[in-house]
Amino acid sequence: MSSIKDEIEEANGKAVDRMMEAEPYWAGVGLAKDVIPGFKDHMLTHAGPPTTWNRASGPLKGAIIGAAIYEGWTSDEDEVERLVDKGDIVLAPNHEYGIAGPMAGVVSPNMPVIVVEDRKFGNRSYSNLNEGIGKVLRYGAYDEEVLSRLKWIRDDLYPALREISRRLKDGVNLKGIMAQALHMGDECHNRHVAGTVLFMREIAPALFTSGLDEEEIMEVYGFLTKNNFTFLNFAMAAAKAMSMAAHDIKYSTIVSVLTRNGTDAGIWVSGLGDEWFTAPAPVPKGLYFPGYTDEDANPDIGDSAIMETVGLGGFAMAAAPAVVSWVGGTVDYAVEVTKRTYQITYTKNRYFTIPYLSFQGTPTGIDMRKVLKTGITPTINTGIAHKNAGVGQIGAGYVTFPVEMFKKALKRYAEVYGV
Amino acid sequence: MVYRASTLGSIASSLLSSGSWGTTISVFHTTVNIRMGGDLLTVTSKMTRSPLNINVKPHDSYVGRGLTRGSRISFDGSQLDMGYAAVEIGDHDIYENDIAKPSRNSFVELSGKEKSLALALLLVQKEGSAASPSFPRRDFVARLLREGGSRTMLMGLVGAGQGYTPSGDDFISGYLAARNDLSEASGLGSIVLPCHEVERITVWVSAELLCYAQRLVVDEVVEGALNSISAGDAYGLMDAISSLAARGHSSGVDTAAGLLVALFEAMDSALGGSRAASLASVLGL
């Protein structure tokens, strides 16, 4: 009879193997209410662990207000709080619906979402479409400019992407793009310059032969190519699919969700199912846009740490020296973060490799046991949102997760399996 | 660089009031161990408090800068002069241990949660730690688990294993802190090792820590573990185990293992059963 230690090792091997072997492809787009199982009317999903209006951070409140107005549920921003309190708007975490959304990550029923299909294990995952940087819904802004852009995304970009995806019968291999982007200076969380170009290379022929009129084609092409974060949401949906493959494996101590909602940070541990383990979200340190300082920063927010969960982003920063010009720090620090992270991960990735480290695989599969044994918690890079609703992005930087949520997970794990 | 003392341990405070100089015994990035008047005084920028510590701010700063083993440290009544750095004592909190008295009921409350506690320890076990199969004197630990602790058996573990404070010493510190705290409730009686002999076998700082621990002078995390045991709070004890896990090379898990072994032995004595022997199996000993 094998010991529990053996069971854990076997489960972790299986979880991380499935994470690496998942084959996420871009399979299409659709409205959230139509394509995401269980997505209800008057429901808004959001980044991070569960929350309430009272606990929600400024940027999350801003995104909720914006999404409610976008859906036409109200035109009065002050009414949104009442609707949420009454249960006329239901809040739920993205991860519980297979979604990963950057920053506030709010998804509403009539928002178009990216559909990613894991061709190896059959999971489906979703993300919203990237709006660009600065004053955008995901950072809590919701003025007319933001809402107009969201409507353009729904009315113009979404039909174009739907047509493109129809023409790309084989879909787009997102893992392949991420692996190649790492060799071109991206780390696939805060730098998607290469990923976006590689993705556009895949879809451009379908866009140009889509039958849309020339002006529309150029508008869509311009929007997608001018935004260096276009690929982020595709990558996040892909990473979510990879993490889903590693999730819910009995005995596994591998972290399958790492996320935050601007108030709390939270994790899922594979062997503990969909139970949240949370701690207060830390405030990032980094570089600020002109006119802003760390006094303006909100605690960290977003599902984008799904990238680190599968071995990318902050964990792969040694592959992306140029990212320090966006998130701060030095190239040496970027390399140090990658090297340090090997101490808390299960293995080196088979597919995501770092040229500068002699093509070693990126650190992959956070093992909660190793986090507790070393006291090293995951460091990720991240965007920084203003703490007040309605402002938007004010910078980018780094954040290191609190150990408390790992401690809570250990206690629960011991309770569940120590019988 | 001038540091500010945020907390003074009760013993550290007495040492400063009676001594004016000391010598560094070991220097780490965030911790400096000083021998002052034959006693241990620790200056640390870590946050964990202990009766032996002077905790300084800013936290996690490089208090060992410019010091080597044997550096002279002097105290002028208000400031500790540490080479390139100084620690202003000024306004500070005093920390002293406050350890609740356990009872038989503590064991009853914990009964049924032994497997969870054992698993929590197993999850954070490290290669070479005292309760791991790769510990050089694993046979001593295995025997202790099966037969119960004795002074002779514990002396056989002093100085054994790796780390600045050897794994065996850390294990004994945890074991004796719990054993002696639980001695009345368990009926097992306490064990006190002869400090002059311990000092002869192991490094001085480690011997000092061990000798304080057996007298229930411990840091706040170990104190939390002992109080969780008294309160019959298995989650509190698991919390302490997870907090200890990252300490040192394996110091924290060794201490946690000692605590748990002593607890299981005490529970066996008070309630009957073979928890300690079962723990040996879980740990692969």
Question: Can you characterise this structure?
Answer:
The complex is a heterodimer of chains A (419) and B (285). Chain A is of the alpha+beta class and 419 residues long. Chain A has a domain of 174 residues: Alpha-Beta Complex (v583 fold). Helix content of chain A is 39%, strand content 20%. Chain A is built from 14 helices and 15 strands. Chain A has a four-stranded antiparallel beta sheet with strand order 5-4-1-6. Chain A has a four-stranded antiparallel beta sheet with strand order 9-8-7-11. In chain A, strands 10-15-14 form a three-stranded antiparallel beta sheet, with no helix packed on it. Chain A is globular. With 285 residues, chain B is of the alpha/beta class. Chain B starts with a strand and ends with a helix. The radius of gyration of chain B is 19 Å and the shape is globular. An eight-stranded mixed β-barrel of chain B has the order 1-5-4-3-2-6-7-8. The interface between A and B is medium-sized, with 22 and 22 residues.
Structural key phrases:
heterodimer; A: alpha+beta; v583 fold; four-stranded antiparallel sheet; 39% helix; B: alpha/beta; 2 domains; 16% strand
Number of strands of chain A: 15
User: Low-confidence parts of chain A, pLDDT < 50 over ≥5 residues?
Assistant: none
Helical region count of chain B? 13
Straight-line distance between termini of chain A: 16 Å
Kindly give the count of domains of chain B: 2
SSE pattern of chain B: EHEEEEEEEEHHHHHHHHHHHH
Summed over residues and divided by their number, the pLDDT of chain B gives a mean of 94
Instruction: Determine the CATH topology of the domain at 244-417 in chain A.
Output: v583 fold
Q: What's the rounded overall pLDDT mean of chain A? A: 96
